[in-house]
């Protein structure tokens, strides 16, 4: 087990958390990351073949994935619980039940209030990491009793609140505001960025997009290729009625933003989103005209490799990068 307080809390070797990704982070990826010493996280629709609104089926699919992770790895892992609002809560309630029944060691709770499931999860012995996007939300989560907070900057792939705080500013704000361990993400892809984020006060790092472009991820090969082939400015912030998303720039983002500019109604936009969702890109491989959640770090990713190799490269690169940093800082010390 690693020595920092996050590693001790989670029983892991390295403070490297594979962030949950809808239609991407299934059992193979999770086991590969956990076996390499990090913490893998099952995301929504892990291992799924089709879209369903059946709550029972959603929960049982997750249970099957949890069992698969356990066949592939003895190491700790996490399950993502997307809280949601209103009627959507039925999904998260079912996932919470499955997580408790299956004695999953860690839950990463996102998109929702921290006071809804923290008590019940903790009473069952599940460690709770709660995703937040401001220091104030971090304090609220801490008061609700979470074990650690996860903050994701504006660079991050996927959906987040409407704040535009970058990882560079958000991480120290959160680290100053709470006493529980802080896990920070958004823009991390290699040893350099891990060093930078931990210098800002994070106890551990959260990495999504880099793990999406691995052999074990469930992302379609055409999506992985699209990311490997992209450079520089390759993502865009996409406003939805409930949140901002960061997506790879493609025909989908051009059409969606065009519709929005032309004044399309919420229901028109919602229909368009449903017809061009991550299921269509990540699962069916329609990489050009469907939504691909993706972080800015995509512009730095040049290859598809094993998830264990991603962990090894980060860990193996830290000492060299640290020496380079010390040499650069020399005149300031
Ligand atoms: C393809 C994709 C799908 C995502 N789906 C989810 C999700 O279902 N639940 C969640 O809490 N976050 C989700 N996220 C956000 C990630 O968990 C994480 O915050 C983000 O990837 C970190 O930034 P990075 O991509 O720069 O590493 C998703 C991100 C990506 C790239």
Quick structural gist:
Helix content is 43%, strand content 15%.
Question: Explain this structure to me?
Answer:
With 333 residues, this protein is α/β, with parallel strands linked by helices. The protein has two domains: 5-218, Aldolase class I (TIM Barrel); 221-283, no CATH class. 43% of the residues lie in helices and 15% in strands. The protein contains 14 helices and eleven strands. It has helices at 5-10, 27-35, 55-72, 89-101, 118-123, 135-143, 167-177, 191-199, 209-212, 221-228, 251-261, 266-275, 278-283, 307-329; strands spanning 16-18, 40-42, 77-82, 106-110, 127-132, 148-152, 158-160, 182-185, 204-207, 235-239, 244-248. It has an eight-stranded parallel β-sheet. It has a three-stranded antiparallel β-sheet with strand order 7-11-10, covered by helices on one side. Helix 8 links the parallel strand 8 and strand 9 (204-207). The longest helix is centred in the last third of the chain and has 23 residues, at 307-329. The radius of gyration is 19 Å and the shape is globular. The mean pLDDT is 96. Residues 19-22, 24, 43-44, 80, 82, 110, 131, 152, 155-158, 185-188, 206-209, 212, 293-295, 297 line the site of flavin mononucleotide.
